[in-house]
Predict the structure of Bifunctional protein FolD.
Amino acid sequence: MIISIDSLAEKIRNNIINISTKHKLKLVSVALEPDKATLAYLNSQRNLSKKLNINYEIIKTNSKEELIETIKKLNDNRNVNGIFLSQPLPFDSHEVSIYIDPKKDVEGITPHNLGNLIYGKSIFKPCTADSVVRILNNFTEIDGKRVAVIGRSVIVGMPVSVMLASKENNATVTICHSHTKNIKEITLNSDIIVAAVGHPEFITKDMVRENSIIIDVGINVVNGKIVGDVEKSVRDIAHVTEVPGGVGEITSLILFENLTKTILYK
Ligand SMILES: NC(=O)c1ccc[n+]([C@@H]2O[C@H](COP(=O)([O-])OP(=O)(O)OC[C@H]3O[C@@H](n4cnc5c(N)ncnc54)[C@H](OP(=O)(O)O)[C@@H]3O)[C@@H](O)[C@H]2O)c1
């Protein structure tokens, strides 16, 4: 069974266009020596920006120093509403994300916004984590549910766990990672599973309860095709988001939705 994201996507799209038709908005994506895959992703971002009536620019840099200088200039540029830092980087992204103005941090990745997430007061929530939580809220009641989050990265696993366990959502969360013993026992005891591992077919049918809800965050390339972290057959017994098209589609839209919120801070 597939979890449809269509109504949520349409709602977010309409919210964005409502504001982008009244306000001039610009997103700048900065990348360090982008490879083909990165450029393909940034071009898909450009295509989406056109559909959403948002100005868009890609800036390519050649060194960490140039990347930081570019970010500082963008912080001071009043015509730029938001900054997207293309990842992965060949060093800890914290070394660069600390320079992004939190009010232009539409990805919600700066230490300021991530720290404030714990207080429930961040200006912008990390887009992928927010995508997971909003897909869940659109589909089910989260309050009181047991959730297994597989993955503890700074941009996905950790923030999604904080958000689900917050007083806004009231889930009981178990965070699993590469040192977790017997993940199957944990997933079988969960109503909801968030798979953010980055291993194709990591979640198999024997690991999930019937009628459970599974959010597949994974994006893996296998034989030139994009696949998630959840084996296809899991759909026979549980509700699962699609890859591509599920979390990723909502994540891309939330980035632009966050951009529309920057008008509050100008
Ligand atoms: N759809 C979207 O919008 C979107 C956005 C971002 C990322 N993604 C995708 O989501 C996936 C995760 O991304 P990420 O940035 O969070 O990746 P990441 O930084 O590589 O983190 C992966 C996490 O999975 C855990 N892990 C790895 N092997 C494991 C195992 N055998 N058992 C249990 N846990 C294991 C790791 O544990 P340790 O901490 O112990 O190493 C780590 O916490 C990737 O496929 C990525 O492409 C999708």
